[in-house]
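Our preliminary data section would be incomplete without showing what the modeling component actually yields. Below, a chain of 856 amino acids is followed by its predicted structure, encoded as C-alpha cells that our downstream tools consume directly.
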Amino acid sequence: MAENLVIVESPAKAKTIKKYLGKDFEVLASYGHVRDLIPKEGAVDPDKQFAMSYRSIERNEKHVDAISRALKKSKNLFLATDPDREGEAISWHLRELLEERGDLAGKDVKRVVFYEITKGEVQRAVSEPRDLSLDLVNAQQARRALDYLVGFNLSPLLWKKVRRGLSAGRVQSPALRMICEREHEISIFKPQEYWTLEAEGEHSAQTFPLKLVEFDGQKVEQFSFTNEGAARDVEKSINDAAQGFLHVLSIDRKQRRRNPSPPFTTSTLQQEAARKLGYSAQRTMRLAQQLYEGVDFGEGAIGLITYMRTDSLSLAVDAVREMREVIAQEYGAEAVAEEPRIYKTKSRNAQEAHEAIRPTSAAVLPSKLEGKVDPDQYKLYSLIWKRAVASQMSHALFDTVAVDMVPSKQAEAGASTGRHVLRANGSTLVKPGYMAVYQEDVDDGKPENENDRILPAMKDGDVVTLLKMHGDQHFTEPPPRFSEASLVKALEEHGIGRPSTYATIISTLKDREYVDMDNRRFIPTDIGKIVGSFLSKHFHKYVEYGFTASLEDELDAVSRGEEDWTEPLKKFWKPFITQVEHIEKNVSREEVAQARELGKHPESGKPITVRMGRYGPFVQIGTKDDEEKPKFAGLRPGQKMDLIKLPEALELFKLPRNLGVTAEGEPVQANIGRFGPYIKYGAKYVSLKVPDDPYTVELERALEVIRLKKEADANRIIKDFGVDNIQVLNGRYGPYITDGKRNARIPKDTDPKSVELELCRELLAAAPLRGSRFGRKKTAAPAKPSAPVAAETAAAPKPAKKTAAKSAQKSAAATTPAKKTAPRKKKAVARADTAKPVAHVPKKTSSKPKKTDRKT
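Predicted structure:
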C-alpha cells in the first residue's frame, strides 16, 4: 500500500491527480462534505457560545470508511480539498472524524492547496504542504451558523404566517427583494413620449445618416420635443432653412483606443456564459467544475482551467508568458500587448483563490478539443480561453470622425447664434487587436460601436445634399427585468454572497417557486411577492443590501484572523430573534395574505377579494363572518394577484359548468379539482388536458373526450369477472390481474383471455398489497392541490405550533448547499465548544442520536 494518502472531494479529481503523483501515493475522494449540522432545532446553541452539533453524512460514511482503512496502511495524510473556505472546512471535518476514530495516531496530517490540476502544480503543492487554516474554517463555520439561525427561525414563521413549505435564507432574501423591487418599478412606470429628429445626407454619391444635435442654438436633449406637433415644426424649420442643402461647419477627427476586458472571475464567467451561450449559473459552474477536475481529450484526463470559484483578476507570471507566446504564434507579434497587462480586483472582498479563471495551458487551443470532449465543455472552455488570451493582447484602434453641418441659408448668412446643427458620426476599425479573438457582450442596451460606419471624405465648407428629414416617435421604457447575468452582477456589486453562492441563490429562488422565468428574465410569482413583502416590511434590516454586505465583510475579517468567529453571531442573534418573536405574536396571517378587495358581487353585494391561501392565490366571495360560508375559486395559470380585475374574478365562479347530457342521459359537467381540470359524466370523471379549457369547452368536445376515455378503458380491460372487482387488465408492462387492492402477474405462457376466476383468486391471495413489494402498505404523499379547497381554507384548524415549527425546520435543513447532505443517526454527534477556536474542540464522548434525530 502507498505510504502517502491524498484526499480530494470528487472521484474525477482523484483520478486526474493519481496519475501525476505515482505509485507512492494513493488518492481517494470524500465525495464532498463528510459531516453537517444535525437537522433539528438546537444544532446551533446561542446560549452556549453558539456551540454547533454535528453528525456524519450517511451517504458518505462508506467513503470515510474507505479512507480510514487506507490510512491504516499509510504514514502521511494529505488533505487536498478545494482552495477555499468550503474546502478547508471539508478537510477539517474529515480530520475530526478520523481523529475520533483513532486513525491519526502516529500519522502526519498536512493540507495541500493547488489552483490548477496540472502535473507541475500538484507536485509543487505536495512538496510544500501547510497546516489547516483555522481562520478559514472558522469563517465557514460562522457562515453556516448564520444561515442555520436564519433558516430555522424565519422558515417556521413563514409557514405560520403565509403557507407551509416556504423558506427564507440570509442571502437569497435580498436577492428576492431585488427582483420584487424591480417588478414594482416596472408596474408603476409611466412611459414618456419624446421625438428624435434625424435626416439622410448625400456627398460624393454616398448616403449617410444625420442626427439633430442643436436647434435654434440650444442643445437637443431627450425631451426637447415631446409631441408630434413640436417635431413637425422643427422639421419644417430645418427644411425651410436648408432648401435641400447643408454646409459642412466643422470636422473633428480622433483616434480612440479600446482595451480588452480582464480574465474571468466566477461572477463574470456566469454573466458572459449566460449572454453568449445561454447557460444558467448552475450549468456554467457544473461544466467549469468538470474542466477544472480533468477532461480526457486523447491524452488522458487533465485539468483544463484553474479553480473556478474566485474573485481575483491576477494571473501567474508563467501563465502570462505562455499566453504572450501563443498570441505571437497564432495572431502575429503585433497582436501582443506592449507590456504584460496587470488587472486589479474591483470586488469589495476578493478572497482566497489567488488567480483569475484561465486555461491551465494557453497552448491547448480550443480547436484541439473540438469533437473530442462534450460540446458544452468545449464551448465553455473556448469562452474561457478566448477571454484570458484576449486580456494579454494589444488594444483595438479606431479612427473616429464627427462632421457638423448647418442649413444652407444659415451658412450663407454666417449666423453664429440660433443655428440648427446636424451631425454625422463615423468610425473605422484601424487595428483589431484583441477584438480579433474576443468581444464582451452587454446585458441590456446597444453594444458600443453598433452603428460604426465610414463617411465620405469631406472638408469645411463642402455642400451636402439633404435628401430627407424625419421625426420619429419614441416612448421611455421601464427598467428591464433581471436576467441571470444581470442579477449575478447586481449581487456582486452590492457585496451579497460569494463566488460559490451565486448559482445556489438562483436555483433556490427557482426551486421555492418564488420566481418564474420569461425569456430568461426573472418574474416574481405571487408567493414570491408576498414573501418578499413580508420580509421587507418586518425584517427590513436583514434584507438590506448593506447589512448583508457588512456581514460578508465580518466573515472576511474572521477568515483573515482579525475577528473571533462568534462576534458576527453575537451581533446578529439577539436583535434578530427578538424581532422574530415580536412578529410571531403581533402580525396576523390575514395581514400577511395581502387581501385586496376587487369590488362587490353584482347580485349579493358581498365583497370579492383576492388573497394568498394554503394552496396558492384565490378569489373569495364574502367573509368568514358571514352567515353563509364564503365561496372560493383558485386563480387560473398566468393570472396574478396584483393584476386580476373584478370581471376576471367573476369568471372564475362559473364552474362547474353544466354542458348537457350524454346519449345515455348522464349529466356532463366541466370543473377544476385538486388535481386539475376535468369532465364529469354521471358518477365518472375524465381529465381535461391542454389545450382544452374547462371555462370554454363545449359539449361536443366533452363527449369526444369521454368517448376516448371509454375506448381506452375498453382496450385496457381484457376480462371482467363481475365478482369482487376482479379483472384482467392491460398494463404498461403487460397483462395483469387486479381486484383493486392487489395486483398479480399472469403466469408465463398463459393466455390472459382464457385465465379462470379460481386461478385469479389464488394469484391475488399470494400477491402483496398495492403500494408495497412485501405486503407493508406505504403511505402515499399528499398531492399538492392547484387551487384552494373551500372547506379547508375557511375552517381548517391551524397546525400545532410545535409540529409546524419542526416541519419547517426540516425544510430549512434541506436547503443547505449541495455539498452538505443531512446525515442519518448512525455516527456520534460532535459538539463544537465555540468559546475556543473551532479546530481546538475538546472531543466529546460518542453517543448515538435519538430516533427523532433522523431527517425525514
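The first strand starts at residue 4 and ends at 8. The mean pLDDT is 85. Preliminary results of this kind motivate Aim 1 of the renewal.
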